[in-house]
Amino acid sequence: MSLPPREPALASPRPHIPVVGRDPWVLSGWGAIKDSEGAGEPCWGPRDALHTADPSQDPDPGGCERSFRVCPFGAGKLWVRPGALGRDFYRLLLTSCLLLRPCELQADKTSKPNILLILADDLGIGDLGCYGNDTLRTPNIDRLAEEGVRFTQHLAAAPLCTPSRAAFLTGRHSFRSGMEAIDGYRALQWNGGSGGLPANETTFARVLREQGYRTALIGKWHQGVNCVSRGDHCHHPLNHGFDYFYGMPFTLIDDCHPDRPPEVDAVFRRKLWLYTQVMVLGVLTLAGCKALDLLPIPWKAVLGLAGLVALFFLSWYASFGFVRRWNCVLMRNDEVVEQPMALETVTFRMLREAVAYIERNKHVPFLLFVSLLHVHIPLVTTEKFLGKSLHGLYGDNVEEMDWVVGEILGAIEENGLKNSTFTYFTSDHGGHLEARDGHRQLGGWNGIYKGGKGMAGWEGGIRVPGIFRWPGVLPAGQLIHEPTSLMDIFPTVVQLAGGQMPQDRVIDGRSLLPLLLGSVQYSAHEFLFHYCGMHLHAARWHQIDSGRVWKVHYVTPQFHPEGAGACYGRGVYPCSGTGVTHHSPPLLFDLSSDPSEAEPLSPDSEPLYDTVISRVAQALEAHRQTLSPVPHQFSVGNIIWKPWLQPCCGTFPFCSCKEDEASTPPGPDP
Ligand SMILES: [Ca+2]
Prior knowledge:
Layout (H helix, E strand, L loop, with lengths): L43 E2 L1 H4 L17 E6 L2 E5 L6 H14 L13 E7 L18 H8 L2 E7 L5 H10 L33 H7 L3 E7 L23 E5 L17 H26 L7 H22 L2 H5 L2 E3 L2 E4 L7 H15 L5 E6 L20 H23 L6 E7 L8 E2 L2 E2 L17 H4 E7 L8 E8 L3 H9 L15 H5 L9 E6 L2 E9 L4 E10 L22 E11 L18 H16 L11 H4 L31
Parallel strand pairs: 4-10, 4-11, 5-15, 6-7, 6-10
Antiparallel strand pairs: 1-3, 2-3, 5-14, 7-8, 8-9, 11-14, 12-13, 16-17, 17-18, 18-19
Helix pairs in contact: 6-7, 9-10
The site of calcium ion (CA) has 6 residues, from loops.
């Protein structure tokens, strides 16, 4: 895999692509209100003149029934069809709307774009062709980028699954909802734990459903299930605004694969197994001594000790010995439909669900959040893709993921929804450098960026792909280097749906529509703060007047071995304690000239050093004023497995069921 050149970050192999702020569109005015082929009658005018209230009765179902009301002009309303407009004209309308009345994008159901969000799991930014990779084949995602806008400084709010997704769903840092660790566990460990996204959090799905959207999550959740009893589903997707769910309430882990070594609490489990063996050996020794009359102890005592050892073993094995059964579960809405989940067909089944969802909702606005199981270990890959990439099992899995994305995009196009669908693709954080099988790399590639999954400060942990497509509205092939966040998706889609932002809480995300439409040149994020658990590790300052992006590190992980760029052999990298280094004075980098964070600046090498440190400290102090304590969802009491919370089909603890084989769809053509 070749390293892309330095800035622009993960540079485009297509240098002619226009860049916001350097080659903006020129608005050409009000002329070209034609269909996409430049023919036909203009698709605008009073709404009633355009289509009937019932889309099924619409004589032009592929046309104006998907119209999009943009904003009032004078006393009337103007209705336009995205695909029918000249791009400049449409962009002007939307820009005017944003400037005049930010939420005027609201209208009835037929006026809203569909929203398709695709989130990859653990995908490195350097794994996609459109971000500079020239050895992995990702033609479908590359095409998405060519037809849309690609962000180069798109940042996860946290470097691990659960907190990053909590922030993505709510538009605010995960510690604001308690979905971050103080120390210890940094992600939910069990379906049977009581921690999870609190019911009083507002997801974008909830807001969009209130705006008349159908809302679905297909794929991974990893935000908890139950609180106090099995089936209360307080953290379940259906309790967070999704009206359809098909997928894993947890996440793929090595334990889901019968041939892979255990992953959940693997070190702790090895210790428990060792303790059990020592205890058994002790009891056997006692029994032998008793049998040979070497020790004057009664048999009752020996049997009592044996019983205690058995109890100890059963108590831990009941949870850890059945990790696959407890955690690798497939649900449809409230119901467990497969336990443990069969890996061979799960990709096809989830894809089938996504395609079917698009098909049956094509006449109403929908939010479809496809949360891919790719490319998390154990890298479940179907036969068609095995051994086909240049990068082993990981590469095979990336290429299969691209095929899945292509099939979903194909369904959008086949149903005539391409121009009325706002599509987004990203990853929940950077590639997992420590995922290895011996010397075989099983994790992603973060390109020129230092660090990876688990590391909150270094770019490799948090810089992810960010691709947006909305043909006819957003420009094709545009590149934006501004700092943006996964948390921005919340306000962006809420604005698209005409919803209201929650007013009773801090929202850290900012709508990307002005940036996407080119009505502004700069991100709304002058500062971004990068947390590892509850610990601030770094801060970023986009100094607009100079165009420079500064990065200040207060805490960094200790690589193992030193200088390795990762923490090999040490399990999950810690956010605090002996595994990190505190920097006083902090490390300072200029990402504009040093995106790999290779050369820390000093007062001698950078005249602005003190100014930058001081300005960022000032912003940090203001940021800290917005923090308030909340219950911790990752406390030991919430994290541990509780039998009474375990999702289960059949009779507990023999939970077992299998989804109807006849409904298993065929895979891709060989
Ligand atoms: Ca992940």
